[in-house]
## 1
Amino acid sequence: MKVSRRDFLKLSGAAAGSLLLPGGAALAVREAPQFPLRKKVGEVTTICTYCAVGCGQVVATVGGKVVNIEGDPDHPINRGALCSKGAASLQIINNPRRLTKVLYRAPGATDWEEKDWDWALDRIAQRIKETRDAHWISTGESGKPVNRTEAIAFVGGSQNTNEECYLWVKALRAMGLVYIEHQARI
Ligand code: SF4
């Protein structure tokens, strides 16, 4: 069957949704599957974990799994923009190499042991108490009370909020720490 260009246009216009086969047979064309334009996602805002600029991000989840992270257009610092590190934040979450459990290597040991958080927090508290008690300085060289320990140091992170920093410093000063630093200054 010979089909001119004009015939072809007429046929395709008249028989939209069908396909012309050699010999004049027509085959119904299956309707394209309907994909929803927007998936149902849960969105929460957060702060980029990488640096002290503290760009705002919108994290989208589907069924409890993070599926997208993008700049928060309402955030006053970045107005929706992210640098290449922040834009690649999804790989921090969905990464088989991400450490999600407490690993402990005992003094002198060569292997890491898996521990639970209760054990780790008790151990940290115990070590802080022991170290603080063993290295407590009540009075300074001039004889004035100083009530401090120089045996423990604290390093904060860029993503600690003002409120977290306030609480950290309150707790650390109460414990007598004087070496309180920030990772961006190291
Ligand atoms: S997006 Fe880039 S500039 Fe913004 S906080 Fe993250 S690493 Fe820093």
Note: The chain has three domains: 1-31, 42-93, 135-185.
## 2
Amino acid sequence: MITIAPPIAEPLDAWVIDQIIANHPDPTGDLLNVLEDLQEAHPDNYLPRTTLRAVADRMGIAASRVFSVVTFYSFFNLDPQGKHSVVVCRGTACHTRGSRHLLQCLYRESGMGGLRDEEVFTTPDGQMTVRTVACFGQCALAPVVAIDEDIHGYVTDVRLGELLKELSARES
Ligand code: FES
């Protein structure tokens, strides 16, 4: 899986890391929550490598342990995330009803050309991170797309375009 990241990737300030660790009475036993708070604190909603190394140093635990936790749970991000999240279901029901075409539309809309093998990408303007999921458990609504955690069913390319327009209209 390859991630195309937006150009800016800033580490978290050391004092933010110290503060978040200090907020947990037993940070070593609470590593998951420490990492979750750190990710939330980052304006690009991710955990830079420098932050993970700092966490390991400050908490006196092996960097490999911190990295293995972050890579095990899919809700942790190792690359900067777009402002909005778009998740396209690639399960069988959604695939047979056109989810690959929807992904292709997203690539094109993002100015990234045709469909490639990447399952996760962030648009060059940092507005959206697109990822796929194996199944939302809503197969009767196939094809299913989630935008910022709102589930949409029976999505066509036209409907997807409308949803993206609504998203940018909310911004302005
Ligand atoms: S296959 Fe898409 S929701 Fe189940």
Note: Residues 12 and 42 are 6 Å apart (CA to CA).
